[in-house]
């Protein structure tokens, strides 16, 4: 093909295709994006969004749920080693990605990326783990790559992440200061997180009871058996909600995401709790804001575990297994500190280089 100004590539990008429990990403360093016109100007956020849109297409690009971009010189949080930039496949920036931050952590280890911030390069902490402090739009996130974990493989590493506190989701229903900010099973008023959404006018339902949780991003959790019990969902017929794997969730999720209740949309999780009290395990499907249904969502799994504990389907201070189509994530919510910890895999699929 004859190269013209229209077809001439503008950038060259070395990247890794990665996934965390089936939630897939491209991961690259912002300072490794090369301008092919010879300019050394720093790549802008607008350009990163344009690059993401071009590469995210499943047929015409690499295909992924989010782009995870590494900046080894964060400028906002002085305590951070790195900054993580998350851009959804629709080109919009996200505040946080729980599965993406594990892949971010593994990429740093695999590529020996040193921090240029004043805080220096991550060091070993008690227990022999490396502690990586990562700046995100949702705040500081700390990851602990389990370099010697027994489940590790040549291309897979288990990563533990401190996801910070579970928070009351601020909606347009209440004033921002009406409830305490941090969720607490014992002290938080149920009105702060249980909400019945009415007048949906959908074939499957007209109203739904939802549990609202913030993990730095908004989550709307729908417990199927609870809503069947309330008469909001049917357990039989073409619109049955008794089998999560077969349930049509797109229309419900899309309607919920557009409601004026939410200040900036929401991620929607559909959860089955059969035998959860015995096993501390729930099954979930997620419809993400800006990405649609994905095989897994890290912050979503945290939101589901917290919601399951708030509703007494699972036990606090024990690991809750959240099973999603892409695999299991282990979530623990501390009653002492309020912190949520997530442990799960980060897998490198392949490494490559692309011009576009």
From TrEMBL:
Coiled coil: none annotated. GO terms for biological process: lysine biosynthetic process via diaminopimelate. One of its GO terms (molecular function) is diaminopimelate epimerase activity. Transmembrane segments: none annotated. InterPro entries: DAP_epimerase_AS (IPR018510), DAP_epimerase_DapF (IPR001653). GO terms for cellular component: cytosol. Pfam families: DAP_epimerase. It comes from the Eukaryota. This is Uncharacterized protein. It comes from Dictyostelium discoideum.
